[in-house]
Amino acid sequence: MHVARLSLIDYRNYERAELDLGPGATVFVGRNGQGKTNLVEAIGYLSTLGSHRVSGDQALIRAGSDAAIIRALLTHGGREVLVELQLNRQGANRAQLNRSPVKTRELPRYAHSVLFAPEDLAIVRGEPSVRRRMLDELLVQRTPRLAGVMGDYERVLKQRNSLLKSARARGLAAAKLPTLDIWDERLVGLGSEIIDQRVALIGELGAPLAAAYRSIVDADHGPELRPLLSVDGGDPDGEDLDTALHADSTTGGDTVKQPAGTAARFAEAVRRLRPKELDRGVTLAGPHRDDVVLLLNGLPAKGYASHGESWSFALALRLASAELLRRDSSTGDPVLVLDDVFAELDRLRRERLAAAVGGFEQVLVTAAVLEDVPEPLTKRIVHIDAGRIVESETTDV
Question: Where is the AAA+ ATPase domain (predicted)?
Answer without folding.
Answer: 22-388
